[in-house]
Write a structure and sequence with these properties.
11 helices, elongated, single chain, two-stranded parallel ribbon, 66% helix, mainly alpha
């Protein structure tokens, strides 16, 4: 009987490793707290929206009658101090003789589905992406601070394979949470529109005039892609710096300082189409986003075409998504290279 060679390659299967990683991430206390806050926030906001909208448009009959009573009181006071022959010109027509609908001053408080459901998808996707980034950064950083990465490499020494499995586990968990959150937000919004609003009318101008459900499906799909990108960026930074706090600090410095500094320093050259935050918005909303590009020289301004000082650039959903993937690759590739080359001690 021959003994197994110590130099033979490990035969660990991927699925058990992936299940173990999904279980590890899903049982983390931070994820469960963030998930609870995320879902509770959707429910609370939906409840507030439900109770602040009405089944009918405009004011109620009681509010309209109250408005007429107030106007009648003002008219009576004005006419009491005015010659009856001049009361009509000075105080206006008698409210008692006017139609009741003239005193409907209320705005339309119906929940308009074709305007509010896209907002619900975008808001829930952004919130899920924020959680995905935090969970990705925390998941990567905690393994270095607790030194559990060294033990995992004893079980699976092929570093790149282990890194891919850990990334797949992270993406699986955050996408499951994002799907649940988006579905909950859309479901509650649809219920509010049915009970306290309307499904009629065209979409608002910022969303175009597309069919509602195909548009929502595409928005939700892009939202899930953005969640995966956010989780990948967070995890990549954590793998590079090997610290959760440093990962979150890098993100804060970038969005709060670096982007604004670049905008100010390179304003003449139009850096806005290359900003990560700008491309995020352009990727999520339907039909993309128009942003200011480079500044025009005075000689380039055509008075007949107006006095625009910048060249507008249209960021389509495809272009914005491609730009975000480039940024993600610029972080993920060095992170993978670092993980396979650096000492884990």
């Amino acid at each position: 009987m021959s003994t197994a060679s110590t130099m033979s390659r490990p035969t660990h299967k991927v699925l058990p490793l992936l299940r173990s990683e999904i279980s590890r991430i899903s049982h983390r206390r931070l994820l469960r707290i963030l998930a609870l806050i995320f879902l509770a926030g959707i429910i609370i906001v939906s409840a507030i929206s439900f109770f602040t909208h009405r089944e009918t448009a405009g004011s109620t009959v009681e509010e309209i009658e109250q408005n007429r009573a107030q106007q009648q009181q003002f008219w009576d006071q004005c006419s009491a101090n005015t010659d009856p022959e001049r009361a009509g010109r000075r105080c206006g027509p008698n409210p008692a003789t006017q139609p009741l609908e003239n005193f409907d001053y209320g705005e339309n408080k119906q929940y308009r589905a074709k305007e509010m459901l896209p907002v619900a998808v975008i808001a829930s996707a952004l919130a899920a992406a924020g959680i995905a980034f935090i969970v990705g950064a925390s998941s990567g950083g905690a393994e270095w601070s607790s030194r559990s990465m060294t033990l995992q490499l004893l079980w699976e020494p092929r570093r790149l394979r282990l890194l891919v499995v850990k990334w797949l586990g992270l993406i699986t968990v955050v996408l499951a949470l994002a799907i649940l959150g988006i579905a909950l937000a859309v479901g509650l919004s649809a219920m509010t529109a049915t009970l306290r609003g309307t499904w009629e009318g065209r979409l608002s101008s910022e969303f175009g005039s597309q069919d509602l459900w195909p548009m929502l499906s595409m928005m939700a799909g892009r939202g899930l892609v953005f969640v995966a990108i956010a989780a990948t960026i967070g995890y990549s930074i954590a793998v590079l710096v090997r610290n959760t706090g440093a990962s979150l600090g890098v993100a804060f410095v970038y969005f709060a300082v670096a982007e604004n500094a670049v905008r100010l320093a390179l304003m003449k050259y139009g850096p806005e189409p290359f900003m990560l935050s700008t491309n995020t918005v352009a990727f999520l909303i339907p039909n993309g986003l128009d942003v200011p590009g480079r500044r025009l020289d005075p000689a380039e301004i055509d008075p007949l075409q107006g006095f625009e000082e910048t060249v507008n650039v249209h960021l389509s959903n495809l272009r914005a998504g491609f730009t975000m993937l480039i940024y993600t690759a610029l972080l993920a590739v060095p992170a993978a290279w670092s993980f396979t080359r650096r000492d884990v001690g």
